[in-house]
């Protein structure tokens, strides 16, 4: 049988803006999962959010600044440069065609795991990737029956299983709890509050220079 290639990590998000709650947990989770490199995958139009995100060029520029000191992170811009809504199943299908022998590990926060059953063709996602889940404060603590069943069937306790199969497993990483969200950051900026400890200083400077997330002026 053909030996599997090294696992590829993928961390999808709107990243409007990218913050420490994205970067720190994913670095830890990748280490625990034994995944050497993780593609940050900014989406174009998030399919499940009402708000239109900031321009692609700004979200990409902030992401570049935020990952500068992390050689294990890089950007995959395939979703953000398309005009279609970003359905993960389609991206995974494209990645699988490119990487037939690499296990694919899709990184998500615990809140995303709780809402996984609302994703487009969600059950088919497990035919393409594993999920590596980061802790996130404020996520529900009780599991729905559906989610409990999913974990019973698919959860693995050690990372070996992620490297011995191309897809289909769930690995819950034990990552630091960081109570940060992009929504909070946008609100802090609108209210003139500090975003220290939430956002990388280079990203903060970019936000200031480009006057992102300012309160809209009405006359
Ligand atoms: N503080 C955090 N801790 C762990 N995971 C997180 C955290 N913030 C975001 N994530 C995860 O990162 C991924 C991308 O999230 P996203 O870009 O939507 O950020 P967000 O802060 O949740 O944004 P918003 O507040 O605009 O909804 C999701 O899987 C989400 O669960
Ligand atoms: O494909 C879907 O239906 C789907 C529904 C919700 C979220 N996602 C993906 O999950 C990732 C995290 O989403 P978000 O909104 O928390 O930034 C991002 O890559 C989204 O494209 C995908």
Automatic annotation (TrEMBL):
InterPro entries: Cyt_trans-like, NadD/NMNAT, Rossmann-like_a/b/a_fold. The keyword Nucleotidyltransferase applies. This is Probable nicotinate-nucleotide adenylyltransferase. GO terms for biological process: NAD+ biosynthetic process. Pathway: Cofactor biosynthesis; NAD(+) biosynthesis; deamido-NAD(+) from nicotinate D-ribonucleotide: step 1/1. Keywords: ATP-binding, NAD, Nucleotide-binding, Nucleotidyltransferase, Pyridine nucleotide biosynthesis, Transferase. It comes from Paraglaciecola polaris LMG 21857. Catalyzes the reversible adenylation of nicotinate mononucleotide (NaMN) to nicotinic acid adenine dinucleotide (NaAD).
